[in-house]
Fold each of these.
Amino acid sequence: MKGIALGQYYPSGSVLHRLDPRMKVIIAVLYIVTTFLAKNVTAFALLLVSMLLLIAVSRIPLRIVLSGIKPVLMIMLFTMVINLFFVGGERLLFEWKFIRIYVEGLYQAAFMAIRIVVLIVGTSMLLTYTTTPIMLTDALERLLAPLRVLHVPVHEFAMMMTIALRFIPTLMEETEKIMAAQKARGADFTSGSLVSRAKALIPILIPLFVSAFRRADDLATAMECRCYHGGKGRTRMTVLHFHLGDFVALTVFVALGAGLILANRYGFGFSM
Amino acid sequence: MSQPFIHTEHLSYSYEDGADAKQMPVLHDVSLDVARGEYIAIIGHNGSGKSTFAKLLNLVLEPTDGKILIDGQDITSPDMTDDDLLALRRKVGMVFQNPDNQLVATVVEEDIAFGPENLGVPSAEIRARVDEALAAVGMTEYARHEPHRLSGGQKQRVAIAGIIAMMPDCMIFDESTAMLDPLGRREVLEVMERLHRERGITVITITHHMDEAARADRIVVLDDGRVLRDGTPEQIFSEPELLMEIGLDVPQSAALVHRLRKAGLSLDGEVGTPEACVETICRAFAAREHNTLVNG
Amino acid sequence: MSKITLENVSYVYGEGTPFEMHALRDVSFSIRENAVTGLIGHTGSGKSTLVQLFNGLTRPMAGRVLLDGADIWEKPKQIKQIRFRVGLVMQYPEYQLFEETVRADIAFGPKNMGLPADEIEARVREAAELVGLDEALLDHSPFDLSGGEKRRVAIAGIIAMRPEVLVLDEPAAGLDPRGRDRILTQVREYQRRSGATVVIVSHSMEDMARFCDDIVVLARGELVMQGKTDEVFAHADRLAQVGLNIPEISRVCAMLRARGIPMDEGIFTVDAAARCLERLLGATDGEGASTR
């Protein structure tokens, strides 16, 4: 249980890891927009190449990247099938009874697949694999800080997120302990009907909630004793500074976006 | 004598029992002075009011009656502002029992920074304070670790560092060793006593372990919300029957000397620590020998 | 007679990961029937793994756990029956309470055993009495009780299963001296009345010396020592080597010995130390009188 890792952070110490998390959030947004700009074969090829470069730079093993795509594989296949069968066009490729597949459909399906993969891999390379959840929270708090003017409780959300991240492992450990304790009293979580299995969870859930409330209460007192009084007047130990590398990264991605727009206009191949 | 750092006058606390709106008294008429730089232990059985007393000192709880002066300032006065409250909590830091439930951040050094951040200390200074606090509790090498992977004693040291970084004058340890194994207890005790010795921090420790209480300069015994005894470990542990009666005990060495005294042996000397007891017993042997020689 | 026997038991956490940890390494020992055995060792010595092996919550990766000479994992499907025979009270057991009343909570184990209602009720009463819970408390919510009472409810919940072996992991942790003495005395009393075998895990050498017949010492997943309580505490140096304390009173005796006072070996209770010193101090006097 001690070995549990939160999220997908993979500490390979790459250039991406060292970028300012705020910049990574900005770039990720930029990258997402970029994937939706691509329109023709050249543009999608460019997108694919950028993704492969991103993986290479991140120094995260391909096996891990691939396992990250697995959960969306079904969605990907589904979109591909839909596009393949239902996109009409002029160049008929294949016909059998009522099934008609057009060249346009084939392209469209491929484009969609690429877009999804690039979206997933791109954002996870930039964010989840190379940025810890806590850095991400921190970055979001700082980027969204101006919204405080509009009474958006940015600090409070960030604090909640931090505490959740801090306590998830603790509560997971606690769940294990409670389960063991109830098993020692003959509780059975693995056999019986669905209803009886759901019922069997009560002896775990109640103690877990009681404990979570007790912890919350203790933590609130401890935070009060450490002079916590909300986000007002609070300073931070770590001051984030944008470095040269951050601006270089930003330039690269802006260039990618520009390249894509150019590719859309002057590139060749099927265009959607 | 100079002004005491903590001064309580007829302090009382009771809470309303939700079920039948009855006032449940917890503390009754506690008047106590603690000098700056003192090291005092508060003992008493569960429900004796010792934790409540501690929580009143930095206004986590508000007294129902009585007065508390910290460093000369009346913290029970209605003029207390929010800023005064923050200043009080910075001055009087508190370490709790459950090491898991007082750490906020997912990285050790970020957690230690939490207090100074709340106080609005400039970033560069927070960094310096955190590094210093880490060194003070011997956790420098764990600065970037996740708290949930640390041992109980280490977590508790991180919690102490979090208070140190606020530069307190006084630290209250509310049963901070109760959930630790002997190793963890020793780590926390060592840090606690070093802070007292080297920085002159006023230490108030609340404990069930009599051997820990024996190390303090002074012991206050609470029973049913009242101060039953207030004295040196020497004085307190010379009344084992009284302590037993209120559900406490004495360290084994003090119990031994007491047993021998009751058996009619005359043992002069101190019983505060095991070492003192050994000294006292040895003195009895020396006296016997001397008597034997003289009489002979 | 040995009640539980461990034969070359090993257990590894997170095998093959960077977090791999050998919790137990080839451990063999047995626990005497009808006695109170104390299990001592530091955090990480393997104690917590061990207690979960006794009742089959964890399965050894190598070696066997025998209950009355039979391998408890012979029929893995029936491991639940073993848990009724070897009752385990985990650390801070009050955190496992969940029922609306104390009565229902104590009945949880017996109910899982499939006992008839009147038998369950009889056992609940008996268990509550054994741990010194007032009958009036049975209809209260367990969450309204004091810390010490909650702990006793949790222990009663295990006792109500009438286990042949009762294993308690740090039963007195966090309690005040009175609560601690009360629980340990009751456990001792339960052992005497029921004839069950009891295993207590504790960090307090003083408590172990007072309440246990036998002691098993573990360090870094290996067996260090096993024997009668006085035999084990007589090896203070060996205990110190693995970083364990001896009771304060034994330390005082050692200091006295170092000062040339001929204290007996193997003293680990205040009573024994007092008797020895009374004799020595009296004897000096006596000799003085007789020689002249």
Amino acid sequence: MMETKNVMIVGVGGQGSLLASKLLGVLLTDEGFDVKVSEVHGMSQRGGSVVTYVRFGDKVYSPIIAEGEADYIISFEKIEAARYAKCLKKDGKIIVNSQSIDPMPVIIGTATYPEGVLDELKGKGVFVDEFDALALAEQAGNVKSANIVLMGRLAKYFDIDYDKWIEAIKNTVKPQFVDINIKAFELGYNY
Amino acid sequence: MKKLMLGNEAIARGLYEAGVEVVSSYPGTPSTEITEFAAKYDEIYCEWAPNEKVATEVAFGAALRGVRSACAMKHVGLNVAADPLFTLSYTGVNGGMIIFVADDPAMHSSQNEQDSRHYAIAAKVPMLEPADSTEAKEFVKEAYRISEEYDTPVLVRMCTRIAHSQSSVELCEREVRELPAYEKNPQKYVMAPANAIRRHPFVEERCEKLSKLGETSFLNRVEMGDTKIGIITSGTCYQYVKEVFGDSVSVLKLGLVNPLPVDIIKKFASDVEKLYVIEELDGIIESHVKNMGIECMGKEMFPPIGEYSQATIRKAFGLECPECVSADSDIPVRPPVMCAGCPHRGLFYTLAKNKITVLGDIGCYTLGSAAPLFAMDSTLCMGASVSGIHGFNKAGGEDSAKKTVAVIGDSTFMHSGITGLVNIAYNNSNSTVIIVDNSITGMTGHQQNPTTGYNIKGEPAAAVNLEELCHAVGIKRVRVVDPYNLKEAEEAVLEELAVSEPSVIISRRPCMLLKYVKAKPPVKVNCDKCVGCKMCLKLGCPAISYKNGKAEVDYTQCVGCGVCTQLCKLGAIEEN
């Protein structure tokens, strides 16, 4: 029996984590896995810290991922990667967009943004793949496609055919956004 | 055909397949998508009602007429709908009727953590609780069968993790149902004392029968494994139990959580060495088991607070948890905030600046209570701002009335604010009410409401005119301001507070996230002019931060609302 694989998608509310998890859900279901995707709706979507869980395997029970269980953490923002790092498995991988978005306590000066936090994690032996997904998204034609750039990067580590990802993108996003998102995916994949 | 569906989407599919004709709801996280997905089926009539009481009564009317109906709400919505619920238990139904209620353990988006199962017990109606999307759909069909066979409304309890988790669902055809002829039956449906007295014994008998149903129904099932440990559980907790123990322990999974069975629990308890009950929030199953004189471990091991996970169970049983690493640096919290360009921000800035006491309400604008504005003194429940300010001012007198406002959103005002305003006018209260009208129900993800001029399908609909409504209930002073214009909004607030009669200020500007609202180009900080005084940071806009001694605007977030440009005395923030 295949061990359940766990992917966490984390970021700041409004960055597009729901589309990324939808894409993964469609892809993995098409691949024949039992899949569970747990999303965040409502208040935390208003610029708060958000987390989406994607789990797949032969049989998935819990919809959520607990400490030390994630194979991958895909983060739209630097400190959000660090916030959920405790959920990473010992040999898990963090894929992170190098963008910093100050949370309100930093904006109003009651806290500081820990700039070196990803290096700190690397120092502890954590695998961190950090790159500027926002710049690639702009190159693709829309800053909002950073979510799909990150999915492209994740695809590098996944054992699923490139074409199947493209198929899943076509089945997930609105027709008018397919081209931009495929470009974003390619840029992330080939980075 | 199989499809990955949210629990709420699977519920909607169940409504479709069960041949449901009428669905009426008020949005509330985590229940909203049930009705949104149901509205995608042309065969089902769906609507947003002004509140959950109305929605439940609409569903009652449809059930009375003989069709299958439903309403959906969040846990606190059931408080509003409790009045019809308790007597619906007496009348029973003609066509089947389900009330979906979605609990929010951990309060991802709620003001309390109440456990809806208490309502099923108190109203003496059956309650089903699915554990994933497949069950969500199947339980809907079974709930209609139970509703019609036992002549009762049925509660179906969801929680955030079932409602907002996607799992695979097998799609089936829609059941075709004929509209039956209507037959008048006042003895059953007119709940005046003479009739209600005769219906109460029926309710008690029904409870007995439903309790027997629980002994044999597929809704409750035993999965025997090793008998050293036996676990009684339901809903999402079942998934956590299976995640940790797989098939290595024995599990009694309850899908009918009210009334709870007796015999299968007795048998299960006698078949296992040690019995545990694992349920989120209150120890309801546990109390039932203990009342039967059966020993078990429940809330001694598991908290009555928050959401569980597989980790909760591992820790409680002293099992090894996976290794993990974490950063040593402090990671600052990232609370939700009003969006960049949110029309509410300018208004709350004005209220904070003038140190005005604010009785708040439920919606996106509750975020006005957060740092750095801290512009809210209370938030209780839907509509409590308008009712509460009247009591506050009657108690505090004129001094209080001159520096206190109520703030309520357009949808919340329609839900429960109107009656409070009637009370203000009727009982001669010198209160100032601000309706923050962003032309949508915001926090739950943009649902239409009676003020927006569109129905759930986005078709044109009658729109309540807030100004005329306020006049009609007896408020003479009603004025409209644009919250993007700080000066105009401040003048209005100070003038209305100064007068000795009730007034309503409608702070009107559509939500920036609405598709038809076009963003302006982002503003820019002129670094030669900016002296780093941090005045603009007082707005608490997520697009403005402080970098290298100057303000900086994040062009990916800024929508050019221009509120910050009005604050900067040096003109350092420039519009493009």
